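tl;dr need the bound structure. longer version: we got a ligand (magnesium ion) that a collaborator sent over and nobodys looked at where it sits. i said id run it. heres the input, straight from their email, havent touched it
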Amino acid sequence: MKVNLMHGAGGEVMGELLRVITNLRHNNAGGIGLESLDDGAVIPLNGQNIVFTTDNHVVSPIFFPGGDIGRIAVCGTINDLAMMGGRPVALSCGMVIPEGFDVADLERIVASMDAALDECGASLVTGDTKVLERGALDAIIINTAGIGVAERVVRDNGLVPGDAIIVSGTIGDHGIAIMAHREGFDFGGQIHSDVAPLWTLVEGALATGDIHAMKDPTRGGFANAINEMAKKSRVGVVIEEEALPFRKSVQSAAGMLGIDPLEVANEGKVVMGVAPDDAEAILAALRSHPYGRDAAIVGEVIEGSHVTMRTAIGGERFIEPPIGDPVPRVC
Amino acid sequence: MKVNLMHGAGGEVMGELLRVITNLRHNNAGGIGLESLDDGAVIPLNGQNIVFTTDNHVVSPIFFPGGDIGRIAVCGTINDLAMMGGRPVALSCGMVIPEGFDVADLERIVASMDAALDECGASLVTGDTKVLERGALDAIIINTAGIGVAERVVRDNGLVPGDAIIVSGTIGDHGIAIMAHREGFDFGGQIHSDVAPLWTLVEGALATGDIHAMKDPTRGGFANAINEMAKKSRVGVVIEEEALPFRKSVQSAAGMLGIDPLEVANEGKVVMGVAPDDAEAILAALRSHPYGRDAAIVGEVIEGSHVTMRTAIGGERFIEPPIGDPVPRVC
Amino acid sequence: MAVGKEILDTLHSLVDQEITLMHICGTHEAAIARAGLRSVLPSNLKIVMGPGCPVCITPQGEIDAALDLVEKGCIVATYGDLLRVPGSKGSLESSGGDVRVVQGVHKAVEIARNEPGRDVVFISVGFETTAPTVAAAILANPPENFSILSCHRLVPPAMAWLLEQGEASLQGFILPGHVCTVMGYEEYERFPVPQVVAGFEPEDILLGLVMAVQQIREGVHRVDNAYPRAVSREGNVKAKRLMYEVFEPFDVEWRGFPVIPKSGLRLKPEFAGYDAQEKYGIEIRHVDKHSACICDKVLRGVARPSDCRLFGKVCTPRTPVGPCMVSHEGACKIWHLYESKRA
Amino acid sequence: MAVGKEILDTLHSLVDQEITLMHICGTHEAAIARAGLRSVLPSNLKIVMGPGCPVCITPQGEIDAALDLVEKGCIVATYGDLLRVPGSKGSLESSGGDVRVVQGVHKAVEIARNEPGRDVVFISVGFETTAPTVAAAILANPPENFSILSCHRLVPPAMAWLLEQGEASLQGFILPGHVCTVMGYEEYERFPVPQVVAGFEPEDILLGLVMAVQQIREGVHRVDNAYPRAVSREGNVKAKRLMYEVFEPFDVEWRGFPVIPKSGLRLKPEFAGYDAQEKYGIEIRHVDKHSACICDKVLRGVARPSDCRLFGKVCTPRTPVGPCMVSHEGACKIWHLYESKRA
Amino acid sequence: MCIAMPAEVLEIKDGNIGVVDFGDLKQEVRLDLVDVSVGEFVLVHVGFAIQRLSREEGLETREVFRQVHAAMMEE
Amino acid sequence: MCIAMPAEVLEIKDGNIGVVDFGDLKQEVRLDLVDVSVGEFVLVHVGFAIQRLSREEGLETREVFRQVHAAMMEE
Ligand code: SF4
Ligand code: SF4
Ligand SMILES: [Mg+2]
Ligand SMILES: [Mg+2]
Ligand SMILES: [Mg+2]
Ligand SMILES: [Mg+2]
Ligand SMILES: [Mg+2]
Ligand SMILES: [Mg+2]
Ligand SMILES: [Mg+2]
Ligand SMILES: [Mg+2]
Ligand SMILES: [Mg+2]
Ligand SMILES: [Mg+2]
């Protein structure tokens, strides 16, 4: 069998590939390991919970409205640490650069990484760089790994019936911004990626109430994240269509592109399941943070399985994890 | 300015690129940071020295006599941790896979990673996978980052005049094996990469005597590693040509290819500077380990600067860090 | 949502018999699925999907022709919809060729203008809504390195064919709102069956259903317009004129159907220079479908996806066998996504 | 190392005057540098490098011709040595074309056989050591899609030219051991200057120096052979015969030199089908050198790299200005690597 | 088939290019198939305006539904 | 120029292909330019044997130096 693009797009298909890649006997260092496929691993060291995570970042274009690959590379890992309840401490950075890449662009990327680090008190402490010959690689790839420390570890599988589902802001901003750019729709700066480091946002929420589960709705979007959380927690989730926060411009663009904004990546959002009694307080905490102003309670955890949506018209339908990256459609 | 292949090949040229990439205010988490360009960073956490390092691995061919990219990806990071005195605890793995890659090959790679982990008691606990479309990427890229714990941190800049320079075995095996394969010289299985995880070897040496500095002679080979160690330590080094251990087959191949085996990568070797009184004991400890059987004392640290070689004929010359990847030559 | 609820209440109060309606528009199917409309309809009112998804009805031979063009080194410009539709040997996405997703035909022309050294072919699929946009582009004198592979289809001939078969027990049709935006609905008045032109908001569709049920209750048939803000009886006259200036109807096969007379659009001889088939000597071959796939029946409204024995087993959204499983609007795909779990 | 030390002692005991010898072989230079030989020689014995590196003496116009072939879409097969040599617009390595490093001409022929749809051109550089291997390959009927860009040079005409200039005060020559392996040394006997054929082990070179110094002390000139295990007076007769069966001498420019009569090798007319210049209409243009680069003087033995005002400043191994800084065996590069710090 | 979205015409350039607003999102569309003025609404499909909508109906879909439903019920 | 390495001929195939040993490293080389038998030594350049070496000299370079040096000194 050959790897195809669907294998990289999240969801069930990706799961098959992950089964191959995670088929290791040495997959856990005494805490939460690779087998959990959570946002990160946990390693108990000397009485502390060390959180450890990694992501490869490839994004086209590398500079886009609202951010660039450098900001994504830092935020992607900061956010995975935060999703586990981890305060980000240190990042590594592995760059693979195609021959011919502009050094001035590299300077911009690095400055952008530094700015993102500045927002959450983490440092990039170790790195590696490879240059590949023209033709072997199209665009820069940045891997970051991160180390954090968690007072209390939060999993993505801790949803409990009755929990309120909260998203920290508008959905689909990053994915639609990128998709539009990539497919030659020139929206200029009208749609901005939401890429942002979420640690201080999450820190505030953690201090406010009981968060049962968290996940960042990146690849595969909200649809994928909520399904993964529900499936791993062995519960059902009901989402209220009318409660979902969208930016109007993103909705317009999604309509034009024929793409469901629930299925595209967010890079500055968290989906959480929280104890119902704490939901309002946590919502207020999120909304008091610049990255959480549009936070909303969008659904509820129920017994059962599947994620369904109560539509505006009163209907009910499934929210499925997407298969493959979305493609613009006209019909 | 554009990035070119020389920027990725180590040495002075790479240094220029690194100045751009490491131009960060947030580059240190309270210990040893990016600014040191050592084999890894050190983060003091709760009274422990956490060692943290990363490497991108791109190798062509991905399967070669003596190993594969999976083994290299694990060993490369294990060894960087070991070079800092760190016991490897946990690894992350970021794979970037080109569309069309054979899943059976992936299985082989993963099994090989597992086997390397097995040799040193570390686990691969977190990962990420991206699939790039055909044409955007030629070959699989594997990034690993690693966390270790060091009782005593060893730097690459601790050489002291009088130190004995030890290499843990024959030089150039990996680089010559790869180079030959890549350039279409068919040596069959006559030359094997030395790729190996060195923690237990290093652990034994650390327990035996006073190691002032360590570095693994990977990219740029022994020539690069010893120059970096000397420069950072502000000392000179004299190498005895006749003491350098080479496999005869590697020497023959290097002769045929017109390539200096001192300038190509090793993936299972360590270069160390040790207190002269401990040199013999450490040498014995290394030689008692399967990966250290050909260890040798190859030189001495002196006051001054530059790395020179006392040649067999009694002459003296510089050993310089190579510029760019070596290329086979016929004249 | 008060209006929607009101219309829905009206609908429930009106349906007092088993009624099956067919829509012939992928966008209707997508809207119905997205709003979960079927879950709130009266239980004796069924909506089935006809041959209204241009991806579903594009025969494999036309995809193969597009792949032939890729192989000849052309830049193939296409709507994203076609990207993953399987031909005999893979899809445009997996072809490894220079395939560009475009928003519309004008963007394909732009590519041809910007890369004069390359041959650019636009895979021109779509019903009457889309064909006029291509006609406008052709009439604007695109560069010589531009051409189209015309795969257009017309709705009324397919409806006529369906009605002649008489297989499906349909009480009426929901007409495709955007096709009618362009074409008006005069030409549908010849069909002796209740029909309503509907838009694409859930409320639009509910209104359309109410109107159709009313005709059935009254025992009449006519074309009602539930989408008056966009559709008039005569449609967009200018668009129709441009379309017929450039294209002419011809007999063509639909995926799942036989050759239907005058149901396709091809370039008129005077535009042969823009005809990729002529230009590159591309032949469209008939390809027999997978023996067990009942897409044809699904598209004709005489079977549901779940009647297919491949459905959800051999044929899934990831390994689609028939076209109905490929398109986002394909009946089988939508059924799989939104309905299979309910079974 | 006892032998080496013994020979070295002999050398020290023999040199009692200022002596400068020239070698004309990049491999000699590399061996001298690698062994740090200059550091152990008597201080009044100097060895300078002449035009013996085929990379250094290949004019920029020939690199440009290779780049033209890349641009025409040919597979360009070359020794690694040429990869980074700058032409007027970049190097083969940075050309982005299909450039393959090969071990020898036979591997380039193999590529042509395996990829019959592609044109394969071998950039055929080298002295008399290398030219016979190419001749053998040509005589073995390579496929039609194979050809060579002949950039070969002959040593004796360059030596003759050097001696005619009389600029450098040289007491003798160390002759290139592997050129003489093929050619023998009979044709060098006409030069009225002490000469010794030497091999490439440090001891070989030391032996050669001893023999040259002996001739100088004796006030005689002849060709001595310090490399008898590989070199005979007549050389490899078969190799010579093949070489002249395929190639014929012609007048050609060397980098740093003017046109030297009969100093190049080109394919004879009967092999024109394998001549890339003929086949692709490639012209070799003369390119003026950087005004301040004194490579020509360095190669002629009248200046040292450190005499160049660009050396180590504008011109470094990373940003080479002249060819002597490009090749591994280029005098300026070797000087930079092994000697600059000593200054 | 045929996704189409209503948009308001903000500007007309070079005769057949319109700058339209889809709702916080401006885009250029082709006007080859319609005769339209600034301030009017159009229905846009594959980058072309395919029909003109009346301004009120473009702005207030909900109200339109109400009216059509009411009218129908009165019959 | 002209890196060349001595090697021992282990086998001869198809007339002009030799399998040679460079010292723990076997390789195929072309024999077009020399007449040579198994067991003899050759000097190899760019994949071609360019000359035959006597077996003793191929094996014992050091001894060769000694002899040449000694002979020279005797003169
Ligand atoms: S489920 Fe698949 S095979 Fe069956 S009718 Fe649908 S598309 Fe055809
Ligand atoms: S240093 Fe550079 S410029 Fe000067 S002679 Fe040497 S190659 Fe030419
Ligand atoms: Mg995550
Ligand atoms: Mg991660
Ligand atoms: Mg992430
Ligand atoms: Mg590294
Ligand atoms: Mg979590
Ligand atoms: Mg290292
Ligand atoms: Mg590292
Ligand atoms: Mg490493
Ligand atoms: Mg990830
Ligand atoms: Mg160290």
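gonna send this back to them w/ a short note. Chain B touches chain A through 84 residues (CB under 8 Å).
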